[in-house]
Amino acid sequence: MSSLVLCPQPAHSNSICDVKTDTQSQFDQVFATLLQRGLLLESDPKLPSVCELITGEPLRGSWWSHPQAQTIFQINERLADHEDVLITKLVSGKITFVHRRLWAELFAIGTARESWQTTGLSTGAKRLLKSVDQRGSVRTDQLIFSKSFKPGELARELEKRLLVQSQEFHTESGAHAKLLQTWQHWSNRVGFQPKEIALTSAKSDLEDTITKLNEEYGARAVLPWQSIRRSRRSDGN
Q1: How far is it, in rounded angstroms, from Cα 207 to Cα 40?
Q2: Could you tell me if 35 and 109 lie in one domain?
Q3: Tell me: the pLDDT tens digits for 29-78?
Q4: pTM here?
Q5: 94 found inside a domain
Q6: Nearest to 48, CA basis, from 107, 78, 26, 57
């Protein structure tokens, strides 16, 4: 975003200059970090995040109460609209912005349907996944389920396992909803043609990225398959 202001000129002349706003400068910084890292969290107490880059400090809990919440929101929206940015629950189940250079890895993992993705899915989540698979995409506000099933919770269950690609939006009434898509439907819609990459290589590339971030920032972030497998081991499964 830029604003037009009058620049100081001789008395006989006024010219209009295009000056970057603070928001533009902050977006440039955030996007440069995303490009360098390949991924960036929305918020995290240790790892690089949009919130930390804007406020100058890691945030715990919700960022909505922070004085710079509006700026954070604007930057998030611009990232969401950027053609080289994908949003998914990739790191520790948190909102993660992923740069295009890691999309092929994410696509390979999302379409693999490994056991960590499908084993233990709730009945409602299985029904929702089947619907997405059959139709290519579904809107959570248009789902018809019994009252025992909550579309938002079922969507989060699929997101956590990278079984779908999701995008939040506001309905005509202003309510929040999500568009759930198969990874193939998403790639066709955005015109992304993923290069062929072995699943083991895709997972290894992302694991290396997270390992380096954890070592650099003293964090303990995990990827979805790592988190689910650890949970199963602790449960004795």
Answers
A1: 15
A2: no
A3: 999 999 999 999 999 999 999 999 999 988 888 898 898 999 999 999 99
A4: 0.85
A5: no
A6: 57
Pairing between β-strand 94-99 and β-strand 165-170 as defined by DSSP bridges:
unpaired
Do 119 and 61 share a structural domain? no
32: helix, coil or strand?
helix
Distance in angstroms (rounded) separating the CA atoms of residues 124 and 115: 18
Question: Where in the sequence is the domain holding 64, given as residue range(s)?
Answer: 1-8+17-82
Residues 177 and 206 in one domain: yes
Can you say how many angstroms the Cα of residue 62 is from the centroid of all Cα atoms in its chain? 16
Query: Which ranges of the chain would DSSP assign to H, the alpha helix?
Result: 22-37, 50-55, 69-81, 103-110, 115-118, 123-135, 151-160, 183-190, 199-217, 224-234
Residue that terminates a domain, selected from 55, 82, 109:
82
Report the C-alpha gap between 6 and 19 in whole angstroms: 10
Q: How many residues does the chain have?
A: 237
Q: Could you tell me if 111 and 218 lie in one domain?
A: yes
